[in-house]
Amino acid sequence: MTYRVSRRIEIDAGHRIMTHGSKCRHLHGHRYAIEAVCEAGFLHHAGEQTDMVVDFGFLKEEMVAAIDRPCDHGFIAALADRNLLAMFAPGPDAGAWLDRLAAEVEQAGAAATCDTRLATKLYIVPFQPTAECLARHWYHLLAEPVRRRSGGAARLMAVRVWETPNCVAEYGE
């Protein structure tokens, strides 16, 4: 038997799926809902998380750091979408700006910047920013913090990403 808890946050962000054959290839936005589902075989026996899988406040802090802070009220773009990214370039040398961000994506798995033409938030990922890929990406960002913040008691089972109230993607075990 296991215990499961989940925490949900919501963000507003734009994106486009450049490879999509229909309307999602256009710039648009969503009110994303992101849920992290955690599991443990036992509850903490002592300390500030007594009788918990993981403190909901800890889980929220990690979700805000990994998802809300870099993405809320921003634009999520694929690194391969060079024409779109060039529109965000802050100066005439878009190539150098893109190369710097590409190096960060290569090293860290994503790049978050406000160094854009209109000083807007931009989050660049090495994949098409579909709900499925975002669920996988955020799962990998949250798995270790969940383990650490729970003292090793909990593990992240899944991350669910709703693009609309009717459409959800899930990645997990």
Structure report:
- It is a single chain.
- The chain contains four helices and seven strands.
- The protein is of the alpha/beta class.
- The longest helix has 19 residues.
What is the averaged pLDDT score? 96
Main sheet: strands, sense, barrel: 7 strands, mixed
Going across the biggest sheet, name each strand in turn. 4-5-3-1-2-6-7
CATH T-level topology of one domain: Tetrahydropterin Synthase, Chain A
CATH 2nd-level architecture of one domain: 2-Layer Sandwich
Q: What structural category arises from helix and sheet content?
A: alpha/beta
Strand content: 25-35%
N-to-C terminal Cα separation, in Å? 16 Å
The number of helical elements comes to: 4
CATH superfamily label of one domain: 6-pyruvoyl tetrahydropterin synthase/QueD
Please identify the top-level CATH class of one domain: Alpha Beta
Flag low-confidence runs. Answer: none
Principal-axis shape: elongated
E-strand count: 7
List the helices and strands in order. EEHEHHEEHEE
Report helical residue fraction: 25-40%
Gyration radius, rounded: 18 Å
